[in-house]
Amino acid sequence: MNKLLYLAAATSAFVAAALAATKCTTASAPCSREGYCNSGPSFCMWGLCNVQNSYNSTSCWNAEGCSSQTVTFDSSADAIAINSYTGNPNTNPYVSIFEPNNAVVENGNLVLQMTYDASQKKGFGATVDSSHTIQYGTVTARIKTASIAKGVVSAFIIRNDQLGDEIDFEWVGKEPTQVETNFFYHDELVYTNSVYYPVGGDSSADYHDYTIVWDPDYVTWMIDNKAIRTLKREDTYDSSAKVYKFPAAEGRIGFSIWDGGNSGAKGTEDWAGTPTPWTSNTVYKMYVDSVTVKCTGTDIAPSDSSAGASSSASTDNPDNDNSDSSDSNNDNSNASGSSSDNDTSDTSATSIGASADNTSTGSKTDTGASSGSETDTETSTNTAAGNSSNGGSGSSSTGDSDGESSSTAISSPGKCHVVAVTQVVPV
Ligand SMILES: *[C@@H]1O[C@H](CO)[C@@H](O)[C@H](O)[C@H]1NC(C)=O
Ligand SMILES: *[C@@H]1O[C@H](CO)[C@@H](O)[C@H](O)[C@H]1NC(C)=O
Ligand SMILES: *[C@@H]1O[C@H](CO)[C@@H](O)[C@H](O)[C@H]1NC(C)=O
Ligand SMILES: *[C@@H]1O[C@H](CO)[C@@H](O)[C@H](O)[C@H]1NC(C)=O
Ligand SMILES: *[C@@H]1O[C@H](CO)[C@@H](O)[C@H](O)[C@H]1NC(C)=O
């Protein structure tokens, strides 16, 4: 439910200079993603960027770290297109990583849209990732899904793109009253990891709170504050491999909508329902009303930046400090966690020192370094822009194989990714 597919955005000058390479050898295109090299957030953001294959050890941006906060999508800055992102997670807590961007902030919601791409004969969706990272904590997203027609897939996940650890809520259009809970360790497909539960109504008719409680020892999925499933780490032990196959790697929170019904892969189509009904002006929409993150451990204090107008500290924050005076030292130097300010009136957005680029906690492991995952090796074999097979290990049949040869869609059950590449030069 998570494999990467690839997108070639024919019009994106932003990426026109991307070069296919196993290893990036020029300082001007230092960041490696899916076998291509370029600069900019699409290629350099932590998690998207492959450290090993990048120009040098500092080419990829560092992980931003976790921030306990609620984002309510009242400001357009709360989610922006990746090619507008300058690397300040406090200003832009969510980033739409598809090109062209099909996500908007509207009426207090993050709205992920899917429209029809006639050239591909299928929907073109959206994927929005948190610009902060998380490694354990609780994430609640208030969501109204796009399950109004078969084939339409909505997803809320936490994922490490390089390692393939992932925790999922997914909704398939053919089952509007159900939600699928799932998890992955290193992108390994284990069919029994997936369990469906009733939402308690039509997930596309009403908002519900979907919560992932992610602890080093367990994951609990909740709907409207009621636990529906707990996965214990101890129950994921693989005795032959001698490893706990439990999602543990730092990742990003992600939301996506994509067309499973016209994916061209039978397993995916059976899983999502098929065909997805389209007219030329159909728009499917997934609504995210708010996202609340409570970090475990190191917590970068959310800043009161411009986006802070809609990003307040989480409610259980002991330091609910509304005094303006104490807010002037609003920087990221205090990573001790509990000191998040709750002051949306602060206008000192520009004082957020280090945040113009990568605000690292310094305590995070850059899991990207360990990748070498199949998604990378695979794309390096692409011979044409966007002609990718599915992201690597996904030769599986159920809901996971995409086998796309399209030049546009990157979508995967659970995750959509863009590596917008034009004029690529094969290795
Ligand atoms: C990586 O390359 C950049 C650009 O040339 C350079 O500024 C930086 O010092 C290099 N870092 C390392 C660790 O070599
Ligand atoms: C932040 O302060 C406002 C105003 O005092 C208060 O209404 C709100 O509950 C506080 N939020 C949190 C998360 O403490
Ligand atoms: C960081 O925040 C904690 C908790 O509010 C506080 O005790 C500590 O003094 C702060 N440290 C710095 C460097 O501001
Ligand atoms: C990213 O963070 C590293 C380590 O903190 C720092 O050395 C580097 O200069 C930062 N990069 C940018 C672009 O700010
Ligand atoms: C993708 O590559 C395969 C193998 O080279 C080729 O047969 C197919 O036509 C290509 N598809 C596209 C859309 O370019």
Automatic annotation (TrEMBL):
InterPro entries: Beta-glucanase-like (IPR000757), ConA-like_dom_sf (IPR013320), Glycosyl_Hydrlase_16 (IPR050546). Residues 302-317, 325-351, 365-388, 395-409 have a biased composition (Low complexity). One of its GO terms (biological process) is carbohydrate metabolic process. Residues 352-364 have a biased composition (Polar residues). Residues 302-416 are annotated as: Disordered. The keyword Transferase does not apply. Gene3D superfamilies: 2.60.120.200. Residues 1-20 form the signal peptide. PROSITE patterns: GH16_2. SUPFAM superfamilies: Concanavalin A-like lectins/glucanases. Residues 83-280 form the GH16 domain. GO terms for molecular function: hydrolase activity, hydrolyzing O-glycosyl compounds. Keywords: Glycosidase, Hydrolase, Signal. This is Glycosidase CRH2. It comes from Coemansia spiralis.
